[in-house]
Predict the structure.
Amino acid sequence: MRPAYRARRPGPTRATLHSTRAAAHPRRTMDAFRHAVESRDLAGVESLLADDVVFHSPVAFQPYPGKAVTAAILREVIEVFEDFTYVRELHDDAGGAYVFTATVDGLELTGCDFLELDSEGRITDFMVMVRPLKAAQALAARMAERYPAIVEAAAAWTARD
């Protein structure tokens, strides 16, 4: 059962998802995403994001809608995470999940990137979860310091489009 606070966009049935996502080769998108993140190729990650992607932060209550802000957040978080490594992956026809480890301010954390894809193979929903709480709090503090830069970068991205 889904929590009441996470509204979902109405979408196709699972049978429809299976047939349309198979055509978009979700595994290619997932593999490209992992490669881009691991090689710190943020332009590559950005190319995989749908324009209407929604980013769910592990440290913010409200989601961040749009490619501009999602890309800006990812550009900053890659600087905050130290020793970032994917350690496990799970896939289905709708997308997948990547479990990772990283360090923030000397605190080890474990997290997971959950990705949902559209019929074109673009990432439409990007949710990150992290643990333990102390490391999540350190991540929140570091990202709060960078929030003005995120807002500025997102505005600049939007202005150029």
Observations:
- The first strand starts at residue 49 and ends at 56.
- The CA atoms of residues 107 and 134 lie 8 Å apart.
- The beta strands are 49-56, 64-65, 82-92, 95-104, 107-117, 123-131.
